[in-house]
From TrEMBL:
It comes from the Bacteria. This is Integral membrane protein. The keyword Membrane applies. Keywords: Membrane, Transmembrane, Transmembrane helix. It comes from Streptomyces nogalater. The chain crosses the membrane at residues 6-26, 47-68, 88-107.
Length: 135
């Protein structure tokens, strides 16, 4: 069997396994975070969590498929390892970037929700004080 095909098969198996593992880990551990962001609405948290996982799979597996092709022919075992390390390294970076992007957006939503939940002063202000000149 051609070494290039062997490298492709190994790349696909490892990339798909990594994508599934990361998606399951994020789904399992991110559900609690989503419930907090969505103010304890468990049904909505489960729905958003599922949609995020589906989107995660689509983007990452699409990237894995697009990044599969290689113009170089692999002629030796060293070439297999070099090609795999490059491809898998890029896949890991994309998985990490996707994770950080999701956490960033959800954290922004969470902060906004926390600000909206802060209590307002119980009484209206009694007077207005003009700013001093030169202050």
């Amino acid at each position: 069997m051609d070494r290039t095909v062997i490298a492709y098969v190994i790349y696909l198996v490892v990339s798909i396994a990594l994508t599934v593992w990361v998606a399951r880990t994020l789904s399992r551990n991110g559900r609690i975070f989503l419930a907090d962001v969505l103010r304890g609405d468990d049904r909505l948290a489960d729905a958003v969590n599922h949609l995020l996982v589906v989107g995660f799979y689509l983007v990452n597996l699409g990237f894995v498929a697009l990044y599969l092709s290689d113009d170089d022919t692999i002629t030796d075992t060293r070439g297999v390892f070099e090609a795999l390390s490059t491809k898998l390294g890029v896949v890991l970076l994309v998985l990490g970037a996707m994770h950080l992007g999701n956490v960033y957006v959800l954290n922004r939503i969470r902060r906004r929700g926390m600000l909206e939940r802060e209590p307002v002063p119980p009484v209206q202000p009694q007077e207005w004080i003009a700013p001093r000149v030169g202050a």
